[in-house]
Every structure is written in C-alpha cells, then in structure tokens.
Amino acid sequence: MRLILFGAPGSGKGTQADILAKEFNLRKISLGDILRQEVKKGSDLGARVRQYMDKGELVPNDTVKEVIDANLTDDNFILDGYPRNRKQAESLDSILREKNKSIDAFIYLDVSRNIIVDRLSKRRVCKKCGINYHLDTMPPEKDNICDNCGSELIQRDDDKPDVIKKRWDVFLENSKGIFDFYKQKGIFISIDGDKKKEEVFKQVKEKLRDRKAILD
Ligand code: AMP
Q1: For residue 4, what is the enclosing H or E element?
Q2: Nearest ligand 1 atom, CA 167
Q3: Is residue 22 part of a domain?
C-alpha cells in the first residue's frame, strides 16, 4: 500500500504516520526528518536547505525531488510531509508512473488552527533521539529532560511563534492546488484531526477499509 499523509504543521502527521507504518508494515518517509538530519550532519544538502527551513519556507521543488527520488525505493510506503504543493504532486506522479506504481490514498488531517498553534508552541523535542513531547498533554517526567535517553529537550527553531505563522500561511497557500489534484484522481480522504490520536487512527482505518485499500 502507498499512502500520502497531508496536514498543517502540527496536525499530528508524524504521529499518525508512525502508527500507520507500524500497523501496515509501510516504510515511513518523512521529508522534514530527512532534511533536518542533513542540516544536523552539516552536509551540502543540509547547507542548501537550512535557510528555507529556518524561515518556515518550502525548500525549492528541484531539491526536494532529488531527495524523494533517492528515498522512494520501497514498494510500500507512507509519505509524511511530501508532496506539499501541486507541483510536487505532479512530480511524484511522474516518478511513480515510470515505476508503474500509484498512490492508494491521500489522507488529509483536518485540524483547527487554535489546536495547531497550541501543539506547536508547546512542542519540545529531544535534541539527541528526536522524540516529541507536549508541555501539557505529554510532558517528560523530569522538566526539560528526555525520558528515553536523558538528553536535553529543545524547542525547534521553526516552532517559534512568527515561524509558526509563516508555516501556516504556506500550508494554506498550497492546500487548494494539491487537494484538487487528488480529488480529481478520486483518492482524497479527509479526517477530523481535532480528535485524540487513537480516534484519528480509527477514522483513517475505516476510510481505508471503505475504499478497499485494506481488507480487515
Ligand atoms: P516539517 O517537519 O514537515 O514541518 O518540515 C519542516 C521544514 O522542512 C518545512 O518548513 C520546509 O522548510 C521543509 N520541508 C519539509 N517538507 C517539504 C516539502 N515537501 N517541500 C519543501 N520543503 C519541505
């Protein structure tokens, strides 16, 4: 099965992608994570993309296409954070067409803006192992210390208020084009993402079952 997970920053895409990947044995391909690792490693690619990421802007499509080409090696996968605009959707379509493959479902996690701002501004991430926390709903046992590896928790630069606003604007600007693209293909699924993660997952599963993408 091949899925795309789409939603605003902070919509819970990463969490749902992890759950879906585990449940259906899919490789999770998170473009944001791949790019952040490149920045951390200090690679050439990292140096090229950093300026955009720090400002909350999208990295240019050509660069993104390179990264996706190199990572789209498995048969079954879930894409988290890609494609994010119509141009990227078109390029993905042509990459897959060359391999005689297609996407089974485009899943949109629809989350209210106030919930997004709360989630992002209170998100903390372990600087070593990358696990996410939320100061109110999923706090670490000890303030500012990762439960998993004991390293310090930090706030991502792009989770600061002015960058959150920019990322939201970028999301709104790009949604319509990509929605139209996948609606035309008949594989668009919309999910109420304001609910708890278990409930969101249940909805995703039901809709995939309705579409016969999964059988059980
Ligand atoms: P994320 O963790 O998915 O919110 O992504 C963090 C940042 O990585 C974004 O604000 C962009 O700068 C960059 N990025 C992630 N995915 C894409 C994409 N599909 N196209 C362009 N830039 C991206």
Answers
A1: strand 2-7
A2: 10
A3: yes
Tokens of 209: 């079952």
Query: What is the C-alpha to C-alpha distance for residues 191 and 105, in angstroms, rounded to an integer?
Result: 12
State whether the beta carbon of 167 lies less than 6 angstroms from ligand 1.
yes
Q: Is 10 in the pocket of ligand 1 (CB under 6 A)?
A: no
- Residue 122 placed within a domain: no
Range of the domain at 72: 2-113+163-210
Cβ proximity of 163 and 56 under 8 Å: yes
Tell me which of 4, 31, 88, 163 to substitute to probe ligand 1's pocket, judged by most ligand atoms within 8 Å of the beta carbon.
31
**pLDDT tens string for the chain (216 positions)?**
999 999 998 898 888 999 999 999 999 999 999 999 999 999 999 999 999 998 888 999 999 999 998 888 888 999 999 999 999 999 999 999 988 999 999 999 999 988 898 889 999 999 999 888 999 989 999 999 999 999 999 998 888 888 888 888 889 999 999 999 999 999 999 999 999 899 999 999 999 998 877 666
Ligand 1 pocket member 65 (CB < 6 A):
no
> Is the CB–ligand 1 distance for residue 35 below 6 Å?
yes
Would you name the residues annotated as active-site residues? Answer: 13, 84, 123, 156, 167
Q: Which residue has the tokens 């606003």?
A: 165
Give the domain CATH number at 9. Answer: 3.40.50.300
